[in-house]
Amino acid sequence: MIFTLALRNLFHDRVRLMVTLIGILFSIVLVAVQLGLYLGASRMITANIDHANADLWIMPFGAKSFEDGGMLISARERHQALATPGVAQVTPIIVQFNEWRKPADGSTRVVIVGADAEAGAVQPLSLETGTWEDIKAPDAIAVDRTYLQELGIEGLGSSAQIGPGRVKVRALTNGVRSFTQSPYVYMPLSRARYLTGAAGTDLATFQVVKVFPGVDVEQVRSELAGRLEGAEVLTTDEFRDRSLTQWLFRTGAGVALIGGALLGILVGTVIVAQTLYSSTKDHINEFATLRALGSSSGYIHQVILTQAGLSAVIGYILGMMLALLVVLASQSSPLPIIMTPQLAAGLFSVTLFMCAISAISAIVKVTKIDPATVFSR
Hints:
Layout: H1 2-12, H2 14-51, E1 56-59, H3 75-82, E2 87-101, E3 107-114, E4 127-129, H4 132-135, E5 140-144, H5 148-151, E6 159-162, E7 165-173, E8 184-187, H6 189-195, E9 206-211, H7 217-227, E10 232-235, H8 236-250, H9 253-282, H10 284-292, H11 297-330, H12 341-367
Parallel strand pairs: 3-8, 5-7
Antiparallel strand pairs: 1-9, 1-10, 2-3, 2-6, 2-9, 4-7, 6-7
Helix pairs in contact: 1-11, 2-8, 2-9, 2-11, 2-12, 9-12, 11-12
C-alpha cells in the first residue's frame, strides 16, 4: 500500500514529475562528467608511472611530477643504487618538455620520453602501429594518433623537428593522452639525450629502480636515501601521489572538478526538495485524513521516502543513459571521461542520499499536520 500510494502521488502531477526527473538527471550528468573527468585526468597523469616496471624512483630534489622532473642527474646515482643490496636493476630515462616544429608552419610543446624498452623499465604505451624495433631506427619516434592534427602531421612517415634534430614517425600509440596537452613522444634514450642537449653524457631525469623479488622495498629505499646526497628516492605510490597533487591540486584543476560535482549534487537536492515539498503540500488533506484514520507518522514518512526513492531510481536510470552517451562521445577527445562500475554505484548511492535529504522538508511539513483539520473541511 505504501508503494502504491507513493507511486500515485508521484505520477499525479506529470509536469511536476518531469521537473523532478530533470533536476535529478541534470545532477547525475554533471556529477558523472565532473568525476569522470577527474578519473580520466588522474589516469593520464599517472599512466607512465603505473606502467613502468619500477619499485623506486631516483630523482632530483624538487621534482614535481613525471613530466616536470627538474634538473638532470648523473650516472653516479645509478652506480650507487646498483651497489645497494637488494637492487636488481637501475634504468635511466629522460623526460623533458621540448619544442616540436611542425613540417608546414608553427610549433607546439611535446614531452620527450626517452628510454630503452629492452631494459624493461619504461616503454611506449598502447602501441597500435609499429614496434619498438621500428622506433630504434634512425630518427624514429612514436606519437599518439590523437595528437596528429595538433602536431601538424598525417601519420606514419611524417617528419618534423624537435630541438636540434629531425624526427620521423615510425610508430603510433592509441589512447595515450597527456594531461598537460603536450603530447608524449617516445624514443630511445640516446636520441632523447641528443634532442635535449645532453648528447655524449650519462645524464637522466629519473633512475628507475627494480628490486629483487622478496626484498623489502622500504628497506632498500632507506638504504638508498642514506647513500644518495644529490637526489631523493620515492616509491612508485609516492611518486604517483606527488604527480597527482602537482597537476590536480596545485594547479586547481582537481578542486574545480570536485567543486563542480558538489554543485551538481546541491542543485539536484534543492530541485527535488522543492518538488517533494510542493507535492506534500498539495496532498496535505489526504495525509491529514490518513492521520485521522489512525495512520502513524512513521507510515506517512515511509510514503514520502518511497516517493523520493522512486524519483531517485527513475532519475538515475535516465541520467546514466545520458551520461554514458557523453562518456562515449568523449573517448576520442584529448580529455576522455572515465566511467567505472565503482563510480556508477557511487552515483546511485549519491542519488538515493540526495533524494532522501530532499524528503526532509516534506516530512517536516507532514509532521505538523493536525488530524482535526480533516473534520473542519
